Structure formats: C-alpha cells, structure tokens
Amino acid sequence: MFNEHIFDYLRTDKLPHIWCPGCAHGIIVGSLVRSIEKLKIDKNKIAVLSGIGCSGRTPGYLDMNTLHTTHGRSLTFATGIKMAKPELTVIDVMGDGDAVAIGGNHFIHACRRNIDIKAIIFNNNIYGMTGGQYSPTTPTNYYASTAPYGNVETPFDIVKLAKGAGASFVARADAFHIGLLDNVIQKALSHKGFSVVEVMATCPTQFGRRNKMKEPYQMLDFVAERAISLKKWQEMSEEERKGKFPIGIFVDEQREEYVETYEKNVIERAKKGDR
Amino acid sequence: MKKRYTHKIFKNLCKGCSLCVHYCPKNVLEIGDDRKVIAARPDDCIGCHMCEMRCPDFAIQVHVCEEEEKEKVK
C-alpha cells in the first residue's frame, strides 16, 4: 500500500504540479490519496474543495469531483454540497490563511455545527503564493517579507481553536512523520462529524530562505524537530515545550451530525406540515 | 535470500529537490548531472519506501524485483 496506484487518482495530464521543489504540499496530497485508496472510497463519491493559495491548487490535480473556490470561503461551499448531497465524502483542503485568517469565521462555525466535512489544513506558516507575508500561524521571531525584524505576534494554535469551537475530531500531524499522517487522515475520513486535521507543512521558498534554511530538507527537518508525540508532550515541562508543538489525535468523539439532525428536525417535520 | 528492489523514476515529474536523497537511510539515491534523481546503489536498498512517501512530486516508486516475484510463484 504505497504509491503504486497513485496515478489512478491524479489528473496525470496536469503533472508535474506547480509547487516549488521540496514543497511538502505534494507529500500531503500523496498521503491523502493513499488514505482514500486504503479505505476503498469510490473516487466518484468524493468532493474535494479548496480556497486560494498554494494549497488551493490541490483539487486541480485530483481526479475526483473538485471545486476551486474563493479565498477562505471553501467551507461555505462545502457546507452547501454536503447539505445537497449527503452521500458524498466532502474533503475541504485549506491553507492556514484560508482556515484561520480570511475564513476564520466560517471555520469556527463549521466546528460548532459539527457538519460532516473533512477539513485538512496545510499549515506552512506563511502566505507562500503571494510573496511570503506573515500569516496568523507564523511563529514568533521568524522572518517574513512583511516582518523584516521578525514576527512580533503570537501564532494561532489551530488545534486549540478547533477544540474550543467544538469540532468532534481534531488532530495534528506533520509532513515528516508519514506513518502518523496516513493514520490520522484515514481516521478523519472515516469519522462522522466535522474533522480537523492540521498538517504542519513546509515552505522552502518563502519561509525557509528567509529563516536560514536554504535546502528543502532543512525546512522539513525544522518541522520534524519541533513535532513531539502527544504522550511525550504531556510529560514535558513548560520550559521544554517552548517552540515545539504536539502531534497526535486530540479529540475523537461522536456527536449529533448537522445534516442528519437537519433532516430529522426540519425536513421531515416540514413535509408533514408539523409546526 | 535478500530481497532486491528496483526504483521506478519518472524523470518528467522529478524536480531535483533531493528530499529522497537526504532521507534514504542506506544512501541509495543520488542527484544526477541532469538535476534529477538516479538510483546509484540499488543493491543497498532495504525497501523502506521512505523516498516514495516523502517525494512531493510522486516521481519515485520502489518495487520488488520482478525475477524474484516469478520465483515466488514457482
């Protein structure tokens, strides 16, 4: 179960993709395809959406039902698709800008509703496509084109945000630890309810070069060094945790799903004229 | 008998980022003169598939040697 059948799920005429050499977005797409293949989901029963940005290119390369939407609003389109066609597996691929900056509002409300959408967030800590401006997830003291003296802001913790907003499946993985990444995406795809997977990706061109990481592997090492398994994280002191982040599954619970509840409490009653 | 592996490399997809070269535990791969990856020492490969799964361009696949597959069938 490796990349043997990967081209069955890709639009091969669109390859090679536009992502920079060494960009981790391709690694995550590979993992997503392997997970879909492992779970034997029919590719005609999947809808993949994205917003704007480097991550927004993903649907273009996947041979499934795909939609490339406006910046930050992909969750609203995804909500519409899921409501109209609940039988589809709706995967929403977002960047960090899509999910927590421009689309932050849509994100927390999708979490609150617990609608059955799989949100995969490609977190590369920067706005890569538009020229390396710092994003809400750029770590403090790291450089970006709009932060020449280092970023002074505190970054968002997407896992805590999703947890607080009420998502029923929240996990974080990174592009280096492939085993965990495959595992987490498979669990998210088979979960019923709003699933958030934050994947720590890399941006060797815009983030790496500004932060003394010249080669793509240095950037991936930088992610791997900071990723700590959840078990080890709990034993660490506050001092040791500085600059690092935990990876693993944080929330996995069953709650009433929005489309089913809507069908039961609104559509059926409206058909009966019961008010 | 030790299993042997072949490396299927799609040169049109490879961008020469050298992630596979760096993360190979047995130092099997190299970047060639054309800035694309080549399997320089395929006999050392242990079939961990790390290059395959970390390749962002889907440009490399590791397969078990076909001759051995045939032997297995016999």
3D structure, described in words:
Chain B: GO terms for molecular function: iron-sulfur cluster binding; metal ion binding. Chain B: It holds the Pfam family Fer4_7. Chain B: Residues 5-34, 36-65 form the 4Fe-4S ferredoxin-type domain. The complex is a heterodimer of chains A (275) and B (74). Chain A is of the alpha/beta class and 275 residues long. Chain A has a single domain, classed as Rossmann fold (3-Layer(aba) Sandwich), CATH 3.40.50. Chain A contains twelve helices and ten strands. Chain A has an eight-stranded mixed β-sheet with strand order 2-1-3-4-8-7-10-9, sandwiched between helices. A two-stranded antiparallel ribbon of chain A has the order 5-6. In chain A, strand 1, helix 2 (58-61) and strand 2 form a beta-alpha-beta unit. Chain A is globular and about 65 Å long. Chain B has 74 residues and is an alpha+beta fold. Chain B has one domain: Alpha-Beta Plaits. The mean pLDDT of chain B is 88. Chain B is globular, with a radius of gyration of 13 Å. The two termini of chain B are 15 Å apart. In chain B, strand 2 (29-31) and strand 3 (37-39) form a beta hairpin. The longest helix of chain B has 8 residues, at 66-73. Chain B has helices at 19-23, 50-54, 66-73, and strands at 5-9, 29-31, 37-39, 60-64. The A-B interface holds A 2-4, 6-7, 10, 15-17, 19, 21-27, 30-31, 34, 176, 178, 204, 215-217, 220 and B 12-13, 15-19, 22-23, 49-50, 52-58, 61-63.
User: What is the global morphology of chain A?
Assistant: globular
Instruction: Tell me the series of helices and strands of chain A, N- to C-terminal.
Output: HEHEHEHHEEEHEHEHHEHHEH
The topology string of helices and strands of chain B comes to EHEEHEH
Mean residue pLDDT of chain A? 93
According to DSSP, the number of beta strands of chain B is: 4
Strand order of the largest sheet of chain A: 2-1-3-4-8-7-10-9
Tally of DSSP helical segments of chain B: 3
The chain-level structural class of chain A is alpha/beta
Fraction in helix of chain A: 25-40%
Quaternary structure of the protein? heterodimer
Keywords (chain A): Oxidoreductase
Pfam families (chain A): TPP_enzyme_C
Protein name (chain A): 2-oxoglutarate ferredoxin oxidoreductase, beta subunit
GO molecular function, one term (chain A): thiamine pyrophosphate binding
